[in-house]
Amino acid sequence: MSRKETFSRRDFVRSGALMAAACASPTEMLSLAQRTSSTGEALPIRLGLASYTFRNFSRAQVIGFMKQLNVFALNAKDVKDHLPMDPQQESNALADYAAAGIKLHAAGAIYFAKDEDADIRSKFDYCKRAGIGVIVAGDPAPETLPRIEKFVREYDIRIAIHNHGPEDKLWRSPLDVLKAVESMDPRIGCCIDVGHAVRAGTDVVQAIHQAGARLFNLHMKDLTNFQDKGSQVAVGEGLMPVRRIFEALIATKYEGFVDLEYEIHPNDPMPGVIGSFAYMRGILAGLGYASQGRNN
């Protein structure tokens, strides 16, 4: 199939998803996390948002954007005032999200720069206060993992180590993460960032299968060139095998969220974010999950 034909098909899926969204009634706007199929089974893919996408915007603006997108699942980061580390400020943020019907399922990336109990405990406390079950960990040093493991057991909060591509000296690929944690507590696993993973030469579909139950979070993005970090585009406009990624997640019975992390156009991200969710919803429609209303 030619590149031109590939984009034509993607454009068709995207336009179909946008039409479906435009025609949906308010009563049909149910979150993916709450939607069920006609057989009563929970849908296999849950879409969420990484708050880093809106890093240049306030919490109030993020909430407004999420309502426009009909997305109510958030991977929150301590950026701007999205989810501050200070307990009182964090409490205020949680109240705002709860009032808007937004649920926080993960936090991060959170960095563990110190191999010290006090520093690590403060970050687990931060997530415990928010009722968050997954910490997306950015670049924890391998020698820090045994200490982190101790807190994983104490708090029963999972650690998802985030791969950051060729520039990352520690975790280029999710496969590096899996190798390092294979003998550790099963609540220590990975967050696959598909954009960074492909730039490290990783087959993301294979990595999903290899991660299995140790995959706790997935960051979705798209690139037009798998060797160029600067080639990021809206999901569906690049070469990322989104359908095969979703099929792999379904096959492995993935229970986490697929969080859009749209890192480009930080001052005006909404056009690309809208297009990305439309494309992912179109893929879900193609997989037979189009009739129950809004995706989350």
Description:
This protein has 296 residues and is of the alpha/beta class. The longest helix is centred in the N-terminal third of the chain and has 21 residues, at 3-23. An eight-stranded parallel beta barrel has the order 1-2-3-4-5-6-7-10, surrounded by five helices. The two termini are 31 Å apart. It contains ten helices and ten strands.
* Poorly predicted ranges: 1-9, 12-41, 291-295
Structural class estimated from helices and strands = alpha/beta
What is Rg? 18 Å
| Total beta-strand segments | 10
Q: Give the proportion of residues in helices.
A: 40-55%
Give the averaged pLDDT, no decimals. 87
Number of helices, where a helix is a run of at least 4 consecutive DSSP H or I residues: 10
The SSE order reads: HEHEHEHEHEHEHHEEEHEH
**What overall geometry do the principal axes of the alpha carbons give?**
globular
Strand count, sense and closure of the main sheet? Answer: 8 strands, parallel, barrel
Q: How far is it from the N-terminal to the C-terminal residue, by CA?
A: 31 Å
Strand content: 15-25%
